[in-house]
Amino acid sequence: MDRDSLPRVPDTHGDVVDEKLFSDLYIRTSWVDAQVALDQIDKGKARGSRTAIYLRSVFQSHLEMLGSSVQKHAGKVLFVAILVLSTFCVGLKSAQIHSKVHQLWLQEGGQLEAELAYTRKTIGEDYSATHQMLIQTSHDPNASVLHPQALLAHLDVLIRATAVKVHLYDTEWGLRDICNMPSTPSFEGTFLIEQILKHLIPCSIITPLDCFWEGSQLLGPETAVVIPGLNQRLLWTTLNPASVMQFMKEKLSDQTTGFDFETVEQYMKRAGIGSGYMEKPCLNPMNPSCPDTAPNKNSTHPPDVGAILSGGCYGYAANYMHWPEQLIVGGAKRNRSGHLRKAQALQTVVQLMTEKEMFDQWLGHYKVHHLGWSQEKAAEVLNAWQRNFSREVEQLLRKKSRIGANYDIFVFSSAALDDILAKFSHPSVLSIVIGVAITVLYAFCTLLRWRDPVRGQSSVGVAGVLLMCFSTAAGLGLCALLGIVFNAASTQVVPFLALGLGVDHIFMLTAAYAESNRREQTKLILKKVGPSILFGACSTAGSFFAAAFIPVPALKVFCLQAAIVMCSNLAAAILVFPALISLDLRRRTAGRADIFCCCFPIWKEPPKVAAQPVLPLNNNNGRAARHLKHCNSNRVPVPQPAQNPLLEQGEPKSSGYSLASFSLSSFAFKYYAPFLMRSWVKFLAVMGFVVALIFSLYASTRLQDGLDIIDLVPKNSNEHKFLDAQTRLFGFYSMFAVTQGNFEYPTQQQLLRDYHDAFVRVPHVIKNDNGGLPDFWLLLFRDWLSNLQRIFDEEYRDGKLTKECWFPNASSDAILAYKLIVQTGHVDNSVDKDLVLTNRLVHSDGNINPRAFYNYLSAWATNDVFAYGASQGKLYPEPRQYYHQPNEYDLKIPKSLPLVYAQMPFYLHGLTDTSQIKTLIGHIRDISVKFEGFGLPNYPSGIPFMFWEQYMSLRLSLATILACVFLAALVLVSLILLSVYAAVIVILSVLASLAQIFGAMTVLGIQLSAIPSVILILSVGMMLCFNVLISLGFMTSVGNRQRRVQLSMQMSLGPLVHGMLTSGVAVFMLSTSPFEFVIRHFCWLLLVVLCIGACNSLLVFPILLSMIGPEAELVPLEHPDRISTPSPLPVRSSKRSGKSYVVQGSRSSRGCKNSHHHHHKDANDPSLTTITEEPQSWKSSNSSIQMANDWNAPNCNGYQPAPRESRQSAYAVPPPAYHKATAPPLTPPTPPPAFQPAYPPELQSIVVQPEVTVETTHSDSNTTKVTATANIKVELVTPGRAMRSYNFTS
Question: What is the SS3 assignment for 79?
Answer without folding.
Answer: helix
